[in-house]
Amino acid sequence: MILVSACLAGLEVRYNGTHCLDFRISKLIEENKAITVCPELLGGFSIPREPAEIIGGTGEDVLDGKAKVIEKSGSDVTDLYIKGAYSTLKKAIDVNATVVVLKENSPSCGSSMIYNGKFIGEKIAGNGVTSALLKRNGLQVISEEQFLKEFF
Prior knowledge:
Layout: E1 2-5, H1 23-30, E2 34-37, H2 39-43, E3 52-55, H3 59-63, E4 68-71, H4 78-94, E5 99-102, E6 113-115, E7 123-125, H5 129-136, E8 141-143, H6 144-151
Parallel strand pairs: 1-2, 1-5, 5-8
Antiparallel strand pairs: 3-4, 6-7
């Protein structure tokens, strides 16, 4: 089973209430080859929500207690991101996911790039919190770009 970010399947779950629909991914859902997950909703966030970025490192650093996830207004939402990551890990294990396709650049889902923590639109190499946790637990996590390049 393939686990995919819900926004890639067209669900309006992003922080601003939008989606990032890719028809090839939504077709996998229709064919029962993939199921959706949104780590941020699993963590307890609502839609819409404030944008957040990792301050002081990457998702690995958040898991190690060396960095935090902070909303643009300054609120610390680290615990909700960690909660969502662990809920996503449980779901991936429960469905025996062979690959997890997550939305690039997100502080939860980024699998190679995340925003730099300054809320200025600049990106750095790194994993989001959920991607970091899934990778630590031996799951294959890739971005939608990588997935579409490799599988389509």
